[in-house]
Design brief:
By secondary structure, the protein is of the alpha+beta class. The protein has three helices and five strands, in the order αβββββαα. The chain has one domain.
């Protein structure tokens, strides 16, 4: 079940400002029902990518393609997500560098 935009903050680790989708959370890739994105205010952290599908969420570090945190995904889904991140790591890193002007 998808949460309405006003209720989504309950499923997310960060509070979201008004109009967050495009400006605050740029989508890098949509694949296999997953949305891969980052938060615009996280440029001080090491490069990473967030993933969502439905009410499930994960954060992965790009340098080692390792799981930082996850909520709601099964282990098989985490494995699939990690494979996708490995396959698109250059894209994610390039978009991170471009967005944060590195």
């Amino acid at each position: 079940m998808l949460l309405a935009p006003a209720d989504r903050s309950k499923a997310w680790p960060h509070a979201r400002p008004e109009g967050y989708d495009r400006e605050w959370m740029p989508t890098v890739l949509r694949l296999s029902g997953y949305r891969f994105f980052f938060f615009s205010l996280e440029g001080s952290e090491p490069p990473h990518i967030h993933v969502e599908r439905g009410d499930s969420y994960a954060k992965l570090w790009l340098s080692s393609v390792s799981l930082a945190r996850s909520k709601g995904f099964r282990s098989s889904e985490i494995s699939e997500i990690m494979e996708i991140v490995r396959a698109h790591k250059s894209l994610f890193q390039d978009r991170w560098d471009e967005h944060f002007k590195r």
